[in-house]
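User: Please predict the structure of the protein below. I'd like the answer in structure-token form so I can feed it into my own downstream comparison script.

Assistant: Understood. Taking the following sequence of 162 residues as input:
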Amino acid sequence: MKLVYFNFFATAMLLSSFIGYAQEQLPGDITADQAQLIVNEANRLSKKEGVVVNIAVVDAGANLKSFLRMDNSYLGSIDVAIKKAKTARYFNAPTGEIGKIAQPGGAIYHIEHSNDGLITFPGGVPIYNSAGYIIGAIGISGGTIEQDHDIATAASKIILKK
């Protein structure tokens, strides 16, 4: 019984040291303040365009960092916005560009079936910091694909102006 207790205690101590490390902000990762700034800008731009969307921002590890479902936006667009952001980060490219080579006969045809589902049409773009490093990505869903792309692109650049 003492051995089991020791192993549990040692495991708990080791795990707590990893958890403490994981709580630090990683260099090259989007901050919560930056993610919220981008969401706010996308919200403002969407209202200006007269379109209702879902807005997702993921961090450098493609984990959801910030999200807004605008009033009356499509429920189905929640998952699409998140997957657009993740897809843009997974491949460090706008989702529309990925879609061009994911068509039948393309080099990565059927890629959208990987990674628990990807979105390969416009509306997801990487987010760059002032040093030119990708620190996350944004996904917009609910407007036309052109509106989604334009809002995502413009909103992703707001942190460069601050």
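That's the full token string. Confidence is low (pLDDT under 50) at residues 1-6, 8-23.
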